[in-house]
Specification:
Layout (H helix, E strand, L loop, with lengths): L5 E3 L2 E4 L12 E4 L3 E3 L9 E9 L3 H4 L20 E11 L9 E8 L3 E4 L6 E2 L16 H13 L7 E4 L7 H10 L3 E6 L7 H21 L4 E4 L6 H5 L2 E4 L5 E4 L7 E6 L4 H9 E9 L18 H5 L3 E4 L9 H13 L7 E5 L4 H9 L6 E5 L4
Parallel strand pairs: 10-11, 10-15, 11-12, 15-16, 16-17, 18-19
Antiparallel strand pairs: 1-4, 2-3, 5-6, 5-8, 5-19, 6-7, 7-9, 13-14
Helix pairs in contact: 2-3
């Protein structure tokens, strides 16, 4: 496209701060905006064409007005959503980037073309033999999150017992595979939000079933279950023994008869409470997120905290950007595993920016199978 041309710039706009579950109607697609394909004179940023956008659970947190500082800053109503994504540089006012470079980063607006002034947050893509969509997932923030949370925070040892919640998502599927690569026993839970209209309920239950099959049959987890179908999460994590009418003892191993060494926490709420009952002495919990709490006005309390003391459990929250200095080390670790077929990465890809709102809602309701990606353009 000719430099300096004025083009249509489709956008996904965030309407206003929300309470409860995200709906497609909380966003809208704007098609009447345009952008001139050139940087303002003297600009030190980059003009980019956006290619792939990442749907991530943390985005729901940004849709609630927050008056205090911290890790998360709220979206601005009436402006495009922003998140992780992959883009192609069309023009650069920064010496670190040139026209044609491919980049990924955390502040990519949900639109077709953008000017990014904060170039310090951008990573140049060096390994173009990988699918570009991987730079929204395994080769970007979710991959680094899994790597840092599991290896740096949890310090795993071969033979340990690992539990991963939201295990069919972008991060969880990698944590489980990293643990198997280390020689650990791994169980994952998956589930779908069922507080939707009846015609969506069947879809949600079907996705949960597919997620469980994915974990066991494709990703190599030792065991998996749909936590939405479990009446007693504590029992689901333990060994269940039942006596038949003929007084024959039937023993069914359900996940962790001897307890959990490492829990990679993505869900929170009742799941965390059940896990605390099943942690082994000197266990570790890496708190990556708590997606079950994001739609609640009043977060659920956790009752079994005394088990942290009695079993000397270490719980640590972490944020991925504290570990980006390890990104080169992570690539050295994961690229050979991908190329040798030792790691499988599952993506759920939708085409078209206009389908982004539905994809994000689907992610937050558990209807995705793997990493949720929105394709804006493929080149």
């Amino acid at each position: 496209m000719e430099e300096g041309a004025e083009v249509r710039n489709k956008q996904v706009i965030f309407k206003d701060y929300i309470k409860g579950a995200l709906k497609e109607s909380d966003m809208y697609v704007k098609t009447d905006t345009t952008r001139k394909l050139e940087l303002p004179e003297g600009a030190e940023g980059v003009l980019v064409k956006n290619l792939y956008l990442s749907c991530d659970p943390y985005m729901r947190l940004l849709m609630t007005k927050r008056d205090t500082g911290g890790v998360f800053s709220s979206y601005t109503p009436g402006s495009p959503l922003t998140g992780y994504g992959v883009a192609k540089v069309l023009e650069s006012g920064n010496a670190n980037f040139k026209k044609g470079d491919l980049v990924w980063g955390p502040k990519i607006p949900w639109e077709e073309y953008s000017i990014i002034n904060n170039t310090e947050s951008l990573f140049k893509i060096e390994y173009t033999d990988m699918p570009l969509s991987y730079y929204t997932g395994i080769l970007a923030m979710p991959g680094m999150t899994a790597y840092a949370g599991f290896f740096e925070v949890c310090s795993p040892k071969k033979g340990e017992y690992i539990f991963v919640s939201a295990a069919a998502g972008a991060v969880g599927q990698l944590v489980g595979q990293f643990a198997k690569w280390m020689g650990c026993y791994v169980v994952g839970s998956a589930g779908s939000e069922e507080k939707y209209m009846t015609h969506l309920l069947i879809t949600s239950l079907g996705c949960a079933l597919e997620q469980v099959k994915l974990l066991k049959n494709k990703l190599g987890f030792d065991e998996a279950f749909n936590y939405k179908e479990e009446q007693d999460l504590d029992a689901a994590l333990k060994r269940e023994s039942t006596l038949t009418l003929t007084w024959r003892l039937i023993v069914s191993d359900r996940c962790f008869p001897e307890g959990i060494d490492i829990y990679f926490e993505n869900v929170g709420g009742k799941m965390l409470d059940a896990v605390l009952l099943n942690m082994r002495t000197h266990g570790r919990i890496a708190v990556c997120g708590m997606v079950s709490q994001y739609n609640l006005d009043e977060p659920e309390g956790v009752r079994n905290l005394m088990h942290i003391v009695s079993r000397r459990v270490r719980i640590q929250g972490f944020a991925v950007f504290d570990y980006y200095h390890l990104y080169s080390k992570y690539l050295e670790f994961v690229l050979p595993l991908i190329r040798e077929g030792k790691i499988t990465y599952v993506e759920d890809i939708v085409e078209g920016l206009e389908n982004g709102p539905a994809a994000l809602v689907g992610l937050l309701s558990g209807r995705n199978i793997g990493k949720q990606v929105v394709v804006v353009a493929r080149d």
